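Appendix B, Record 12. Input sequence as logged:
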Amino acid sequence: MKWPEFQEITKHNNSKEKVLADLLKLQKKYTEETEIFHIPSKVFYVSPGFYWITEQLKDHYGVGMPFVFGYFKEGKGEWHWVPHIGPAQKVMKQIEKENTFLSEIQNKTKRIIDKFDGWLAKQEIKNDKCLQYYIDKLNETCNVLLETNIHLQISFHINELLRNKLVSLFPELSETEIMTFAPSNKKADVVHHDDLLIDLIWWCKENKCSLTKLNFDTLIQKPAFKKKLESCYNHGYFLHSSYGGVNLWSLKREYQELREKVKEKIGQVHETKKEEYSFTKEQQFWVNVSQFFSLLRDKRKTIQQKVFYHMACLLEEIAKKSTISRTNLEHLRVDQITIGSLQNKKEIKNIINKQKEGYFFAWTTNKNIFTETGKDANVIYEKYYSEKEHTETEISGLSASQGFAKGIVRIVLNTHGKITFNKGDVLVTAMTSPDFVPLMRKASAIVTDLGGITCHAAIIAREFNKPCIVGTRIATKIFKEGDIVEVDAEKGIVKIIK
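Logged structural output:
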């Protein structure tokens, strides 16, 4: 897979004005279908996505989304797109028409994941190599992500279409009831990691290895403890990475997380009893489709996070060799990190500063890619997106996990950095990912802008038996830090009470 040359794509296809004119036209056409979401983002980690959700997705399925645009500044990202139009529609039609198509997707998915796992198992970053070695490994890693994600990405796009399909097939059931069987019944990777930590806590109690009295340096000398802690680490090191950055992990930090679980007295998560339903043949088929794509979304996220972690490790080595900090390098696209660019200190510093100031990315299915940075990026963003003023005190969404809760709103868009979050607070965010799980565990309820029947928040909330409402679209805009809200996940309503 050849990494895209962004300047060349723009230069050989259309001018900036033509790309943006087409963007404006498509925005007006798809106003009602457009999804806008906010996620923690650093240009470095999202830059592969500029390609796999645009050119690569279109090439792979023969049809693309109408448009995509993103705006990134100060570690925050904003995406505007119409994910369920284009490739997702084509896949849904093929599933409906071809009896064997789903099994073909499942078999291909297994081959892709096995290939990725085989590649990852062989990856070892060698110390004290030349700068080109680390740059080459970085590009190899990104190409692996591109090749893997182009197949897994569809699990995100198809979510809304699956929701509509299931609602039409089960007119007698509420969406909350559908949510009891629509997601995969297999445990998410993050829950598996939690189970291993809890198992280790019980092992320590049984073997008189006090986690409160004995420190890390003492416990790590015990071979059995070390082996079990390493198993926990291997199943969870990547959970601390996202589009917003990566916290490099270690056995000592894994031990500290183990200690936190002891302090919080967190026990094993037990699945809630699910009501039994009898399905027709067609209903059962689409339940299977929904459960498969739900599982696929979890696998997609896991692979992304493992790659981001590996990228961050390589970036650490590049930072040492180039004397440019990892924090600054994370403002560059992956394709901008070359021997030539890193050696031209004045020019690379200028690029970093401009992309810190603002980064705008646009793509349309007709006119291809355009990027802008600095003040010009901010001007373009203001032109192409003016936010509606919201005065609502009550919003609704999809009830992903039933229950009722009251609590103080904590708006968390990025888990990297200092966060004030107390047990019983209501987590309000754009969307969750595995790095949100410690907060989800503490929360009395979870509310998201995005999401549907196969989303991460829905799966984890049900595992933890927490009230959860997803797909509100505007929760992070309506609520303010410190608001006291009522979350009625029976009705899918959140309202401010103080």
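DSSP finds 22 helices and 15 strands in the chain.
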